Amino acid sequence: MTDHIEIDRDGQVLIATLARTEKKNALTTAMYQALVEAFAQAGRDETIGAVLLRGKDGIFTAGNDIGDFLAAAGSMETSGGTLFIRALAAFEKPLIAAVDGPAIGIGTTLCFHCDLVYAAPGARFQMPFVNLGLVPEAGASLLAPQRFGYAKAAEFIMLAESFDAAAARDLGLVNAIVEPADLYAHALAKAQALAAKPRDALLATRRLLRGDPAILKARMDEELRLFGEAVRSPQARTAFMAFMQKKA
Ligand code: COA
Predict the structure, then answer these.
(1) β-pairing, 116-119 with 95-99?
(2) pLDDT in tens, 141-167
């Protein structure tokens, strides 16, 4: 278990808080495992109607822990990040994110899987996979062009440019920009509103909105195959070591 994920409950909403702020909420294997368990618990518990993901102290997440990328030795298929991504894509209840500060790598790509995303003005999104010698994950290579159009997807995934909350709202990744002091309460109120809807109708509607899950799964499988090769490449390892040694 880890203290870096805090699980709370408010009414019908399960709240998962990323709480490793000293490392900008970079996600470790233990944190992914705790999130997977939280999704499983929320899925099983009929009294839970929605899950809210949030960061802490003005930080959403700096993405996968780069030290963990360096240490990657076993199969990607069973890595914490992969299990989390699969749990995220398979989760059937509404997912809401409250984003402030950096939302890097999986911090951005997980937002594609959320039904509602609220961001503070200081939120900063980035998908720097290519810069690190990697490829996108969590279906972002499919979902980003669908959501943004190809031109913007290329800008954000190939050039790896970061974008702010206003751009994310204009592009349809973020529902609304909310002042930091109100962000959590606003996102929680929306989560409560979804959780209070007729459950079967809401879940069936969500499935319809998302389309064929097999298409997303096939793309995630292909991303994972390429990611597994890339993460061990000399280019990627050089980029990881540069970050860890602060030469990046
Ligand atoms: N993995 C591991 N450690 C990370 C991390 C990550 N993804 N992101 C931040 N950290 C650590 C830093 O190494 C540093 O540790 P230290 O205090 O022991 O030196 C601490 O978190 C604070 O980070 P720092 O870079 O000093 O903060 P900053 O405010 O200058 O910059 C970010 C914040 C998020 C912009 C920057 O940390 C960053 O770019 N992180 C990497 C993002 C990334 O490429 N993620 C992978 C996506 S696939």
Answers:
(1) parallel
(2) 999 999 999 999 999 999 999 999 999
Residue recorded with tokens 């995630």: 220
Can you give the CATH number for the domain in which 59 is found?
A: 3.90.226.10
Full-model pTM: 0.97
Express each pLDDT in 199-236 by its tens digit.
999 999 999 999 999 999 999 999 999 999 999 999 99
Number of structural domains in the chain: 1
Q: Is residue 170 part of a domain?
A: yes
Nearest of 225, 206, 237, 230 to residue 82 by alpha carbon: 225
Judge contact between 107 and 59, C-beta under 8 A.
no
Ligand 1 centroid vs 205 CA: distance in angstroms?
38
Structure tokens at 3: 């203290």
Closest CA relative to residue 128, chosen from 166, 154, 161, 165: 161
Residue nearest to atom 1 of ligand 1 (CA): 65
Kindly state the tokens that stand for 28: 């470790």
Question: Token pair of 91, please?
Answer: 């989760």
Nearest CA to ligand 1 atom 26: 23
- The protein residue whose alpha carbon is closest to atom 38 in ligand 1 is 62
How confident is the model over 17-22, as a mean pLDDT? 98
